[in-house]
Amino acid sequence: MANRDRNKKILLELAKQPDNNRCADCGAPDPDWASYKLGVFVCLNCSGTHRNLPAVSRIKSIRLDFWDDELVQFMKVNGNRSGNAIYEKEVPAFYYRPGPSDCEALREQWIRAKYERLEFTGENNLLQQIYTSGVRELVLWKKGKDNGHFQKRKFVLLLEDFTLKYFNREDESKGPKAVISIQDLNATFQPQKIGHAHGLQITYLKEAYTRNLFVYHESGKEIVSWFNTIRAMRFAYLKTAFPSASDNEILPRITRSYLKEGFMEKTGPSQREPFKRRWFILDAVDRKLLYFKNQLDAEELGVVFLGTDKHGYLVKESSAAGARSNKWKCGLAVETPDRQFLFMCEQERDRREWIEALRQVISTPMQPHDYTTEASIRRRR
Asked: Is 301 helix (H, G, I), strand (E, B) or coil?
């Protein structure tokens, strides 16, 4: 008969081992759940998806549930390294591996791809061909540019010329509504902002200005598959554009989440205008602080490039900004080589977070392409 306390102690010790001390699926630290059918340790969030896959996974708490001796022995023999050697054997370089802070749709479809569809075991490579096929079409719900209504639109990814096109569904004979180069495209999941569990924000450049598309699909599988198809095409483009770059150099630039987003107030460059509330996005990869009138606006109002402290860029608290605002008192300033930008945060915590995030960017050395971005933004003035 199994000894409950002994088996619990064994499992807790197993979960502390270097191969098991992070969730097998999202990498969250200190997992305290385990799949006794797969032999892997997972976090609470990922355990929910495993619980919904009873045909391939069975889940227990290593702290609260009773474990038979046979199941404990199974966990001893297996573990995260053994499991991932099977279920992550052939993950494409471009495929997005979600982390603990990623949305549920990304984590769920990653788990389903690993254990339910067996996409990465090397036995079902046909499932991966959809990401790298020459043409991929999908009908998505897209937010209108000038209103909050979502309408169905046909989107087409074309590998031949590295473009994303979308059409007005009512009359496709007129050609695409927009043809977007994959060169400057980014995609990031934004379920809370868009108000849908599968909401995706697609960002691109048009005449050096940032544009947003907000879309979603009813199916989590379809939107995550679409997202990874975008990543596959971006990966192919970057490999072509930068043939000498390694995969490790390219991967962070395929797609990225933004370092910080939120409302602040700002004044104009002359600092004579009244402070106005704007939605800000800090894109650390492109070193841009973008601002919009509202969080679901299609077009940016402006952008501040963030160089490095060695090139005259500085972020600091600003009492001058607070003195000029009637509502918000937590000011900060971004100084560039030729001007100063003043911002206001509603709470001191917000100011600290923005300052920390902005300083993280300016403390990072610039890459050759960053100088091109800086020059392009300066030409817009």
From this structure: coil
Say yes or no to pLDDT of 103 above 80: yes
Q: How many CA atoms lie within 13 A of 259 on its CB side?
A: 20
Sign of the alpha-carbon dihedral angle for 106, 107, 113, 119: positive
The percent of residues above 70 in pLDDT, for the chain, comes to: 96
What phi, psi does 48 have (nearest 5°)?
Answer: -65, -40
- Report whether pLDDT(350) > 90: yes
Q: How far apart are CA 275 and CA 69, in angstroms?
A: 66
- SS3 of residue 66 by DSSP: coil
Q: How far is CA 254 from CA 88, 160, 208, in A?
A: 20, 18, 19
Tokens coding 150: 């979502």
CB 40 within 8 A of CB 14: no
pLDDT tens readout for residues 168-186: 866 677 789 999 999 999 9
> Taking phi first (over 0 means left), then psi (-120 to 50 degrees means alpha), and beta for anything else, what does residue 271 get?
left
Tokens representing 44?
């609470």
